[in-house]
Design goal:
This protein has helices spanning 3-32, 38-71, 76-106, 111-143, 146-158, 168-182. The chain is mostly helical and 192 residues long. α1 (3-32) runs antiparallel to α2 (38-71). The relative contact order is 0.17.
Length: 192
């Protein structure tokens, strides 16, 4: 009955794949003295901005977080931390976008700052996902009954992309496909 948690896990896997690609691209650039492809970095930042920040996190807050809050105080500290991180997410993406812009305009002199900003961003995001998966989801599994899960699943399934009024899956799949097209092997297929 925990279809919502399955959906969240799947969405987290997509987010984690983008984070892994971002980290790997920057690590490979450092290790081999190469320039990371700004088109790929922009595509990944765009995905992280339009999917997790504008769709995934608001739905987590509206449905899962609210349901857990109604049933227990065991997760109050975790929920407070996760909500603060959701609120700060847009600012974190903008800071990384600024580091990328400085790199695009300043070249090699800005690469180290971009690599450090990317490492901080990815590490913070991975910790956020870990907290949701290993701390919050077990509490939700424990305190929410079948009726609550059925209601949450119906609400989650009924949600559409608030930006475009379309089912979110297709649009975000296209964004992920674009990242795969731009990412070098073995992460992607590196089509121009």
């Amino acid at each position: 009955m925990k279809t919502l948690l399955d959906a969240l896990w799947n969405e987290h896997r997509s987010i984690a794949a983008v984070l892994h690609t971002m980290s790997r691209v920057m690590g490979d650039a450092r290790a081999h003295g190469q320039r990371p492809d700004p088109r790929l970095l922009r595509a990944m930042l765009y995905y992280l901005d339009v999917f997790p920040e504008r769709v995934h996190h608001p739905k987590e807050e509206m449905y899962l977080f609210a349901a857990v809050r109604r049933h227990t105080h065991d997760a109050d500290q975790v929920l407070e931390t996760l909500s603060r991180e959701h609120e700060a997410g847009e600012q974190a993406i903008r800071a990384l976008e600024q580091a990328l812009l400085r790199y695009e305009q300043g070249g090699a002199t800005e690469l180290e700052a971009l690599q450090q900003a990317t490492a901080r961003f990815v590490a913070g995001y991975r910790e956020h996902l870990r907290m949701e998966e290993q701390e919050l989801m077990p509490i939700a599994s424990r305190v929410l009954g079948d009726a609550e899960w059925a209601e949450l699943n119906a609400q989650w399934a009924a949600q559409h992309d608030p930006l475009a009024g379309i089912e979110s899956g297709d649009e975000y799949e296209r964004l992920l496909d674009r990242i795969v097209e731009l990412a070098p092997p073995p992460l992607g297929i590196a089509r121009p």
